[in-house]
Amino acid sequence: MILFNIEITQGSFTNLENTQTQQDINKLYSEADTILYQRVPTGVISIFNFNNAVIDNLVFMSCKAYFSPTLYFNQGQYLSISNSKFIANQSYERAGALIINNLLSSDILDSEFISNISQTSYGGAMIIYKSTINQIANCTFQKNKALSDSGGAIIIISSEVKVLKDNQFFQNQAAIGGAIRLIQCLPYFINKKRDYSILNTFTDNIATLYGKDLSYNPQGLAIIDPKNPNNLIYHNYTLYSQQSGSLINPTLKVVIIDEDRQPIKFPGYFNQKANSTTAQKQVIEDINVLNQYSLYQLSIMSNNNTALQLDGTKISNFDYEENAYIFDIIAIAKPLTQSQLTIQTTIPFDVIDFNVKKILQKTLSLTITVDFRSCIRGEIPTIQNQQFITCDKCPSGKYSIEEIIYSTTGQSEQQFSQYSCKICPQQAKFCEGDIIQLKNGYWRWGNYTDNIYYCSKYPQNCVPEDPHNKFGCQKGTIGVQCSECDLRGVIWGEKYGRLNTDECQDCKLASSWSNILILIVEIFIILLYQAYQINKQRIFALKQCAYKCLRITYFLIMGKSELIDQGSIYLKMYVNYAQIMVVFRSFQFNILPNFLFSIFSIFGGDQFSLSFLNTDCFISSLILSLPVYMNKFIYTLTYPLIFFVANAILRILFKTPQGLIISLKSPNYLTTIKYRPSVLEKQKQKQILYKMKQFVVNNLADLKSNFIFLYFFYAPTVIKTILSYMICQNVDDKFVLIGDQSQFCNINSQQFYLVTYIVPVFIVWIFLIPAGLLLILFLNRNFLSWMYMKRAYGYIYQEYRPSIYYWEFIKIYLKILIISSQIVLNKDIRLQQMYILSSLFLYLLVTKKVKPYSSTDMNQCDQNLTIVLIFNILIFCVSEQINSQILIKYIIQTLLFIVNISIIIFIAKHIFLKKFPYSYFKMNIFQKIIFKLCSRFPKLYRYIVFQPQDPYRVFRNWKKLRQLLLQFYNLKKQKNFLNEQMYKLYKTQVNISSHNSLEITPYIKQSQPKQLKQNIQIKPMNSTFSINKYNQQQFMRNCNSKKASIKLMEDSIERFDIQSYQEPSSVNQKIFSSQTLTQVKLQSISSQIQNNNSDLIFFKLKTNKEYKAQKERRKSLFQNQN
After folding, report:
1. Is the pLDDT of residue 26 over 60?
2. Is the pTM of this model over 0.70?
């Protein structure tokens, strides 16, 4: 109908439905999701060509139509809608509630639009088309939907809305513009700041494509931030450090943005996502939207083709996987230049210029600055088209680590020809560009060097294939070839050290009982070996002095080799062998199992290897202000000192008190003369002081012997360790200490420690100490057989011939030179092998010529050990040429194992299984065990060698001789005592006679006392009495003369008969009785002297008989030796 003025108020239209539907397609669903109507432009109320229309206080609820199910206004002058409600109305196509078309003026006030739906088109509640709206105010738009198109609440097309305020938009939904969609119109209600939410309230509106609250057209382009994909970069985007001639990196990901500067989504995007919800999977069926999106393409171009060339696909469509436009473009320019490129849409868009309130048509664009870097390592520069330079990356299987140098005057092809890609080395698993992915077991200093090293010392520590490695090293390891532990947690954050193994372990395990127990066992073994060597040296000194006396007296003739404890000498030979064998471990060829090398290390090979393993964590924390290697240096010096002090303390605790007491309580053999009390006291004091002095001298000799043993035992490894802290090695133009390859050289602190501490200590150990010992031996070369010299310095020369007393110094310097070759020649193993081989061969020739040992067996054993060492070196040299032949390699390993184990068994046999004595009680524990085994297995006797004679039989004869000499000495001592008693009695008798004025007095004074005193004096036995100088005839002559003197004394006493004198009966009777008693005593003493004298003669004859027997035995011994 056509009206000029119409007013509809206070009405209610509920459940109205357009009846002009086709019956055959009239399908209603329970939820009324889809309603098919006739395509007729009618709703509940349709008004055309009117002047004024007032709609006030109406309610439209659940009305359904093909479009605009409630009100449709077309071509009018003025429309006013107020205080009305549009609830749950539905249209199949446009406008779920009402349409305003071609109206000159309209006001919509105080109305509600709730749950209206446009199922297949736009305008969920209202469509405003080519109309002017004065104001839309105080209205509520809630839960309106246009899911397939635009404008969940309102769509404004080619219209003018002057005022839009005080409205509330809640939970409206659409594909584009969840609340409001603008098409070809100026939004006067939006300020210059493009803030549309100041006068209205927008809450929880949803747009599946773009514009959740208000949307016009796409408003621009943005770059997805490659560092944070949730961020967008809208302008001033720069691509830094781009490689000329390669794809732009990072890849350009561009999006089109809406009014809210949010990226738009494309129809079907959510259908591509498996994790999208059902509500998001909306099918956009509106053909206008699909056609619109089909034109959304982006292109890329260079702003200056002479400075930047782009290769690749320059037009991009939306990528549903990346939810962006992707540009894989190759950019070519000159290195170290900047160029610009532009990304823009292929079609223009209506864009609102809010400054001038105009709608402009232009393409959406984004300018990007490209900063080209120079060609880097792994790339080869190539000139293209005489104006561009490409940086071509080395392909897979090749690499380049050369730094590209550019000339300021320009580049030419000739200048770039020096750069080329290299073939991937065999030690690498993969190569590409400047990447060299090494295999496990190899190491290099950094990523920009192709000097690859095999981790010969600890190959298991080099794990470049492990993704968790740091600098190609396993966890806990640092330094060159990952050979050091991170003792202070600099790299790995926690402290790591070596605990009983070569692997770096957490220092928290250092306090475990197993580690402490191993350390205690190691110290105990070294102390035991030290005590064994020093004790054997002391025993040898005592025996040597005793045997020398016996040889001088011809009681015992025995060579020097029979006197030496050969077990200790062979043990020294083993230590010498072990110290050199440990050097061979660095030749990258396994000879023996690791546990045997550990045994070598404990007994002389490398004593600090195991001690460092147990105390690595403790050493690094000794002095935190010093570097780790200085802490190890201090520990190296104090370690032998600890054993020296420990041995001295043990000797003081267990040997000194007992020895001192026994020495002071021993009988006085210095003199047999009877002194006055004062003189005797002085003699005793002198004697005590003398014995204390001797005791101190003996202990000082033991301390010297202890020091000498520790020096010769530890000197090779101590000097090697000190030398490792002095010498630096060059690793890719970086100098590091050999002893601590995590420490750089040529820095001020390292130079200070080197000059102040390390070099002086090195001079003392390698020059001053051996020079001092050699000087002492040279000055005392004629007194080397003395007791003190043997006890103090016998460890150096006891097994050598007297003229070759210096041979131990030759051996120690040989070991020092060989062991130090690990440090000096560590880079060239072949040169190190040749050096050791020549040194050992020269030593072998000299030993064959000189024969320094006092025994032929010892010389032969030393030569055999040297031959085995030379054999090992030769096998190493051969094995390096046949590494690829595994079978031959195993054969060589087996051969080396057999040879070295055989020589070890040979030495052990000489140490523990010497020639068996005939006496079971004189066998050591190993001999007893074997002897018992032989009793059960008699065939074993063929492998046992017994001593040709009992070498200790002469000692039993010497014991008898010693008993006879002691008895002879005691007899003389007793005789001296009797002479003194007789002299006292004689003086008493003289005193008595003088009181009575006896006539015999002059006779006694002149003859008898003088004769008596002359005859009974016996000289004390000389302490230097020697059987060799003893004269049998003189001995008998002395005995006869003493016998005659005693008889003369008896005759004289008998002639002095005091009874022949007549004296008064009073006093003379008393004198007579006392004289009689004295004479009786003298007679008894004389008879006792006579008997003792006869016993003395008997023992003299017996001694002479033993002497003759001993002499005959000596002659037979010489005959057997010949």
Report:
1. no
2. no
